[in-house]
Amino acid sequence: MAGEITTIDPQELFLQFFKKEKYRQKISQMAISGRESITVDFEEIFGFDQRLAEKLMEKPEGFLQHASNAAYAQLGIEDAEYARKIEKVTVRMVNLLGKEQLRKLGSKQMGKLVMVDGIVVRATPVRPMVMNAAFRCKRCGTVNLIEQSGQFLKAPPVCTSPDCGRDGPFEFVQDESTFIDSQDLRLQEKPEDLPPGQLPRTLNVKLVGSEIVDLARPGDHVSIVGIVQAFAPSRPGIGKLRVFILHLDANSIQVMGKEPETRPPSPEEEEKILALAKDPKVHKKIMDSIAPSIYGYTHIKEAIMYLLFGGVSKTLPDITVRGEMNALLIGDPGTAKSQLLQYVAKIAPRGLYTSGRGTTAAGLTAAVIREKGGSMSLEAGALVLADKGIACIDEMDKMRPEDRVAIHEAMEQHTVSVAKGGIVATLNARTAMLAAANPALGRYEPHRTVAENISLPVTILSRFDLIFVLRDVPNRDSDAKMSKHILEIHRRGSSPVEAQIEADLMRKYVSYAKAIKPVLSKDALKRLSEFYLAMRSASEAEGSPVAITARQLESLVRIAEARARVALKNKVSAEDAEAAITLMKRSLEEVGIDLSSYKMDIDIIMTGKPKSIRDKLQIILSILIEMEKETGMVEKAALISELEEKHKIPRAETERMIWQLLREGTIYEHREGYLKKT
Ligand SMILES: Nc1ncnc2c1ncn2[C@@H]1O[C@H](COP(=O)(O)OP(=O)(O)O)[C@@H](O)[C@H]1O
Ligand SMILES: [Mg+2]
Ligand SMILES: [Zn+2]
Questions:
Q1: Best mutation site among 338, 339, 470, 481 for ligand 1 pocket (most ligand atoms within 8 Å of CB)
Q2: Helical spans, DSSP H, in 295-361
Q3: Does the reported pTM lie above 0.85?
Q4: Residue 454 C-alpha to ligand 2 middle, in angstroms?
Q5: CB-based burial of residue 139 (10 Å sphere; 0-12 exposed, 13-18 middle, 19+ buried)?
Q6: Nearest to 430, CA basis, from 408, 454, 413
Q7: 310-330 pLDDT, tens per residue?
Q8: From the CA of 470, which ligand is nearest?
């Protein structure tokens, strides 16, 4: 049929197309589902008539109208009654032959039909848009119906009543106008489509019709077919600008599967994956392939490995328990935190690197944004965009105040809820989190606890499965090794330690492993519960509050499951449990819990002060108050001597505590060297 397009009416061609059995059936079933549109696979049109398909892409506006007319005509044959009822059939195209890259859209595609992929980052609520506006002439009462197009509501220039013909005034009559559901989205390039080192671009998309609005939420990966439109923004009082802005008028939208779209491994790759999994040294091999140019930090790389693979999420009838892990690195400046995070974002499926502030107004969770026209829209933040992936959040302590509140839910329930400005929504954020933070005082103070060292509330800290401290302490031996390592990188321009597994295979390995859902073996269960109970009872005996909570037990399970997953095993062995315990112990010790003496104290995490320190602070304060009664204000040196002599508290310790009390504002320096209680 090619070549006949100029002589044969395109509508006639579409009618022939719709007489195919498949589409006749679709059309005859429209009434049952109450649909007013049919979905057409573009590939089938291409197979039917290549030139028709090409024309459809070239001049979509006219040709979609031809298709719509033809579908409606066919509906008249299949189901005349329903045809009378709905007046019009919309044809929605899916599956264009090729995807257009969002960043390549330009003047060439204006007015053309394209298909683009991306992530929905912003969405307005569904709003009624007027299609046919009724205007009553205030002079003669005639109702004028004006079909609407474009951005602004158009009133009739003059009254259409032959007896009137005057230019108004008119009033809009809502009851007699017809409306259609509409929604605006903002689509952003997917990270996997980004050229290296580029920031993602966005495109505004307009959805019209109840069948395509409200299908996608912020954070969803979608494929949209639509017509590229351009409009000239106007400057009030000057006129329209010569440079146009592109947007997409959507014809169809498809929400993609929730799993990251990594290609399934080829048979050769699968063979490599299975061989690697059988290697008894698989854990070490994978750890060594994580940021090989960063020296040391084996325990942190081990944690990152578990984070990449994750534990198993459990959905019970009443609750869900997350499988994804959260880890936090607190450390001195220049300890390669940012480097590690950036590396992980690169190798993780659906990895995302961001700073605590976030790269958009939505920050880490989500935000309701007021658009230029005054309407509200919901924008997804980093944790929503990295749904089912890993979010690497650098300088997390600098997050927005709104995120400090919302992140609790995101870290534990893996959702982000918003109720603001008329928008009520819950977005998914099933995201593993690798965060970094700088010490509040510039350097990590080992004598202070984690909570004192970092400006994050305990409620957030306790949601991390693992916390590690990176300290930059001069040490001749390790400094020499590290400088040799770094200098070697600079000399060779490559890492002295090669990654054993390259990034692409690693990503595939991780995706492959995620399909496995290991369960705890009896031995593993026994080992974990022994450890947990020992800690609980030990802290009980000490008379101190609970140190280890159910949260840590869940973390242990996640780590052990992740370790089994790394080796593609269905069962979590005692060995996996043991490794989880070792890593957890290390983390607990780093945050200041003394495991060797079992002197655990949740107060460390809660108030940032272990009980013994609190007792000493109490002594210092009471002595200070007593001395103050006698002398009005207390000489610092005298206070220190008093405590040393009468209470055997070393001078250095008293000094440190005075400093702390000053910082808290419990006491103040009345005059150089003289203290007073606030
Ligand atoms: N252990 C290490 N191995 C290799 N390079 C390191 C190491 N520690 C620090 N560096 C180097 O020091 C620089 C600072 O690292 P960066 O990630 O910016 O630190 P941070 O974010 O912790 O302040 C980087 O160039 C990094 O490669
Ligand atoms: Mg940094
Ligand atoms: Zn009139």
A1: 339
A2: 298-309, 337-347
A3: no
A4: 15
A5: middle
A6: 413
A7: 999 888 888 888 899 999 999
A8: 1
